[in-house]
Amino acid sequence: MIGSTELIVIGLIVLVLFGAKSIPKFAKSLGEARKEFQKGLDESDSSKSNDPPKK
């Protein structure tokens, strides 16, 4: 399990590597990707519930 100290170190490394201006863009694209992934999972679940049960 990752602790809080490790997360802070990872955050600082990301800040140094990518810069402060690109992090919000990265976070936005990550959030949009997560929404699309969740939407795909929801569509998959709804299509499974509409199919008749297989014997």
Mean pLDDT: 85
The share of residues in extended strands comes to under 5%
Radius of gyration: 19 Å
Uncertain regions: pLDDT < 50 for 5+ in a row? Answer: none
Count helical runs.
2
Structural class: mainly alpha
Features:
55 residues, mainly alpha, elongated
Written account of the structure:
This protein has 55 residues and is mainly alpha-helical. It has a domain at 20-50. It has 2 helices and no strands. It is elongated. The model has no long low-confidence stretch (mean pLDDT 85).
Short description:
With 55 residues, this protein is an all-alpha fold. The protein is built from two helices and no strands.
Which SSEs are present, and which pair or pack?
Blueprint: H1 4-18, H2 22-50
